[in-house]
Automatic annotation (TrEMBL):
UniProt xrefs under PROSITE patterns: FN3, IG_LIKE
Provenance organism: Caloenas nicobarica (Nicobar pigeon)
Keyword Disulfide bond: yes
Pfam families for the chain: fn3, I-set, Ig_3
Gene3D superfamilies, A to Z: Immunoglobulins
Descriptive protein name: Immunoglobulin superfamily DCC subclass member 3
Length: 754
């Protein structure tokens, strides 16, 4: 790789200029690099031949003796000039320099007469076009205006503002425009200051607001804003997007004009001028757009590189500007055309050259250009080629093995084969760009390679390179071959029984089926050898009904996909309709039309039933709550009734008689008054153990002595029995010897039952 000083590059390039009619013009061009270097000039892309009027100096600059905007033959010296430098390693082209003739037009806006009251504002304007931009000065009564007077403001675009008018400001005004081409005077205008300062209130009003401007960075922008009113309004500036205007390079001219020096792209935006009445919110506004352009400049230059034959060379060129620049590539001064092995990416910022060879060795230039200007940068590609490298592999052949496999074979190069350490097979889909290529390495003793995992029905390109420790050989010839077509994959199959004689076969479409033309459907009884079918179905069909089947046998259903390459493997399913027949016998088919009509009624009935059920549940819960509370009160009453004072043992017989006789009648009377007890409820609330029941039963047949009988009756009979025993009005039997009344019968019912 050569050092930077040896690279062919421009030290000085021609620049834009404005030439004066009949005056000489020099365009500079200075180049460095390895000699010999040849420099030539072009105008508008056409080579300039030395002549009496234009010829090249010894230092490479172009000299135009008498610049003329229009010559006698109709030609012009105006145009775009560039210089080209060439040496042994390539050619570079400079940036384009735009040359224009200095001119000045007539005034197309002249100052106008004005009559303004004292204390008011006067404004004069004159406008003229020219190259370069004319400088405009003002004269009053044919004398230069005193610019030291703060009330006089001269704006670059030919505007004169006079504020706080006085009587001595009256006079005759005109402007003078000057550039290298000419000097011109405008018409005169008279200013008359009338009366005295008025004290009548006047709303703020903007006489002239800012204009839309398009400028280039580092220039100066003047945004005009002049307002009147009584009291005198206060002029302020802001940006419409709310960003601060800043203070650096900002200056206010006169009473409200905004001047921005050394413009940058960040100054672009919409500026708002506001005239405010002092002490109030009364205001008037005007706005103008400022666009700041920036010439193209490089953020990253392309770098010269050296690469071995067969490798990839990449140049990167990143530029910025406003508006964003367009990037163009040149190869030895000519527009670079892309191809299979030359690609431009990332909006032309990246140049990639694949599989380089000696023909790619050149100087590559990146040209960035926008409406504000252009720039260029260059880099050289050196292709490394070692002596004694192998020649390209010979007799490259590719044979299709299957839908996904290709066999590639080749022979040794014709010369310099001793240093070969291996081969590299380059593989790419024929329709893909070069950057999608991939490689497979092969040992030096192998002259064939089986390439697998390819796509069916697809064309592939192959070429071989032989490698040594010093570099790679040239590429072999490219061979292109296609893989075989592939039959479709196995489709999924599902069987659904519709009725006793019909089944439905359904399957799912899948991208794995590949390019298939359709499906074939077969079916048969399992005990038979021959299928019914095939039923040919198009590729967009995913279901088929098989009818008129025998419900007593099992059927086999087979489905496969097919295309122009043949039939794919099939999917087989077995189905029996016997269970469907049995279900039909047990559950006869419904009248679907009738059911459908009844569904609406059933739905209404279900809703009504739900409401009724909820209502019943609520009533049941309330009933149980209040019923449980009543039972507790009754049980408490029973306990109070049965809680009698203790009496001596000698009086217990009489007491038992009272409890089972007169006392019972009193209780019956109370029950009839609303405190009746339910026998079942009391038995649930006060359960009796089996032993107690046995004792109770024994009491009815016991013939023990009176004293023992009395103890057993009192100690074993539960208290709740007294509240539920009912005795019929039978005649009382004679008391036993002890004088005790007989025990009550247990199978009697309460008198108040029912």
């Amino acid at each position: 790789d050569f050092g930077r000083s040896s690279e062919l590059a421009f030290v000085v390039e021609p620049s834009d200029d404005i030439a004066v009619q009949e005056q000489p013009l020099i365009l500079y061009c200075q180049v460095e690099g390895i000699q010999p270097i040849t420099i030539t000039w072009r105008k508008n892309g056409v080579m300039i031949v030395d002549s009496e009027n234009a010829f090249m100096l010894a230092n490479g600059s172009l000299y135009v003796s008498r610049f003329q905007r229009v010559r006698g033959d109709g030609s012009s010296d105006e145009g775009e000039y560039d210089c080209m430098a060439q040496n042994l390693y390539g050619l570079v082209v400079s940036r384009k320099a735009k040359i224009q003739a200095a001119t000045m037009s007539d005034f197309h806006i002249h100052p106008q007469n004005a009559v303004v009251e004292e204390g008011g504002v006067a404004r004069f304007q004159c406008q003229i076009h020219g190259l370069p931009e004319p400088v405009i000065l003002w004269q009053k009564n044919r004398m230069p205006v005193n610019t030291d007077n703060e009330r006089y403001t001269l704006l670059p675009k030919g505007v004169l503002q006079i504020t706080g008018l006085r009587a001595e400001d009256s006079g005759i005004f005109h402007c003078v425009a000057t550039n290298i081409a000419n000097v011109k005077f405008s018409r005169e205008a008279r200013l008359t200051v009338s009366g005295s300062r008025s004290s009548v209130y006047k709303d703020p009003m903007i006489l002239v607001g800012p204009e839309n401007l398009t400028l280039t960075v580092h220039q100066t922008a003047v945004l005009e804003c002049i307002a009147t009113g009584n009291p005198r309004p206060i002029v302020s500036w802001s940006r419409l997007d709310g960003r601060p205007i800043g203070v650096e390079g900002i200056q206010v001219l006169g009473t409200g004009n905004l001047m921005i020096s050394d413009l940058t792209v960040q100054h672009s935006g919409i500026y708002v001028c506001a005239a405010n009445k002092p002490g109030t919110r009364v205001r008037r506004t005007a706005q103008g757009r400022l666009v700041v352009q920036a010439p193209a400049e490089f953020v990253q230059h392309p770098q010269s590189i050296s690469r071995p034959v067969g490798t990839t060379a990449i140049f990167t060129c990143v530029a910025q500007g406003e508006p964003p620049p367009q990037i163009t590539w040149l190869r030895n001064g000519q527009i670079l055309e892309t191809s299979d092995h030359i690609k431009l990416k990332n909006n032309n910022s990246t140049l990639s050259i694949y599989g380089i060879n000696q023909a790619d060795e050149a100087i590559y230039q990146c040209i960035a250009e926008n409406s504000a200007g252009s720039t260029q940068a260059s880099a050289r590609l050196t292709v490394l080629w070692a002596e004694g490298l192998p020649g390209p592999p010979q007799s490259v052949k590719a044979e299709t093995v299957s839908a996904t496999t290709i066999q590639v074979s080749w022979k040794e190069p014709l010369q310099n084969t001793k240093e070969i350490i291996g081969y590299v097979l380059h593989i790419r889909k024929a329709a893909d760009p070069v950057e999608m290529e991939y490689q497979e390495a092969v040992s030096k003793s192998t002259f064939q390679q089986l390439v697998t995992d390819l796509e069916p029905s697809t064309s592939y390109s192959f070429y071989i390179k032989a490698y040594t420790s010093r570099g790679a050989s040239k590429a072999s010839e490219v061979t292109v071959v296609s893989t075989l077509g592939e039959v479709p994959a196995i489709p999924s199959l599902f069987i659904k029984v519709i009725n006793s004689t019909t089944v439905q076969a359904t399957w799912e479409p899948s991208i794995k089926l590949g390019q298939h033309e359709g499906f074939k459907l077969y079916y048969r009884k399992v005990h038979l050898s021959h299928y019914t079918g095939p039923v040919l179905l198009p590729s967009n069909v995913t279901a088929y009904n098989i009818t008129h089947l025998d419900a007593s046998v099992v059927y086999e259903v087979k489905l496969l996909a097919y295309n122009q390459h043949g039939d794919g493997n099939s999917t087989v399913r077995f189905v029996s309709l016997r269970e469907t027949v049995e279900r039909t016998v047990l559950n006869p088919p419904c009248d679907c039309m009738k059911d459908e009509q009844n569904n609406k009624t059933s739905t209404t009935g279900i809703i009504i039933g739900i409401h009724i059920g909820v209502t019943c549940i609520i009533f049941c819960v309330l009933f149980l709550m209040f019923g449980y509370r009543g039972r507790l009160l009754m049980c408490k009453n029973v306990q109070e009734q049965l809680s009698t004072p203790q009496i001596p043992r000698s009086q217990r017989s009489a007491t038992g008689l009272v409890l089972n006789g007169a006392a019972r009648r009193d209780r019956d009377d109370r029950d009839l008054n609303g405190k009746q007890l339910d026998m079942n409820e009391l038995e649930r609330l006060f359960p009796t153990s089996p032993s107690q029941e046995q004792q109770d039963k024994g009491m009815t047949v016991s013939h023990s002595p009176p004293a023992t009988h009395d103890d057993t009756q009192i100690s074993t009979l539960p208290l709740d029995e007294f509240s539920i025993i009912e005795e019929q009005p039978d005649p009382l039997p004679k008391p036993p010897r002890g004088g005790s009344p007989p025990a009550p019968a247990l199978n009697q019912r309460p008198a108040n039952e029912g």
